[in-house]
Amino acid sequence: MSPKVDAVRDAAAVVVAAAGATSLAQLDGSVGACRACERLVDWRERVAVEKRRAFAAEAYWGRAVPGFGDPDAKILIVGLAPAAHGANRTGRMFTGDRSGDWLYAALHRAGFANQPTSVSADDGLRLTGVRITAAVRCAPPNNHPTPEERDTCAPWLDAELRLLPEARVVVALGGFAWIAALAALGRAGAQVPRPRPRFGHGAEAAMGRWTLVGSFHPSQQNTFTGRLTEPMLDDVFSRARVLVRLSA
Predict the structure, then answer these.
(1) Of 113, 169, 195, 239, which has the fewest beta carbons less than 10 angstroms from its beta carbon?
(2) CATH of the domain at 215
(3) Domain count, the chain
(4) What global pTM score does this model have?
């Protein structure tokens, strides 16, 4: 069978598995088995074998990474993709990397996390009112997934929205996640405003029962340069909490 035929078959399998999921637990298990994007599968598995020297003794997850958090979440956070030596290593979104250090510290300050750190999948971290996912579920080379990979992965995000009936706010971390979330909300039945809302830190788009909120991604590129500060990230989650209350 040709690589092109394999890709079509595997992409179709994503659609079937995502549409058939009846619980988040079932969805998460299906995500972990996904092999739809050849470039991403090759990269995530290569990284899991070659490893980073600091983690040479650890067993890497090396698969697609499922979402994580409260099954009754009112806030869904959408990131870009797992980090090669972060979630691709630990198996939990935003866990084991600098971006996660910023994100979980902010969630803890906002009262959504029971602890400010996330270092491994068994470290006791619990989220309340929040679930975290990503537009693309596999670590991409150079942290840059393609639009085609985002679109192939889209059924997982669609299913996640469907299985989070209490969700009222979607926080998109970065422009790539904003585009993915905007499209997913449209497919979920929300009226997409015209003109299409543009991404920006603190940008908001009211879309039916959901409100989409934008935030700069807590990447080192943004946090080291001061483009994103702790107060800026705190403001996003404070606003998300207010929006949840207004929707009650």
Answers:
(1) 195
(2) 3.40.470.10
(3) 1
(4) 0.95
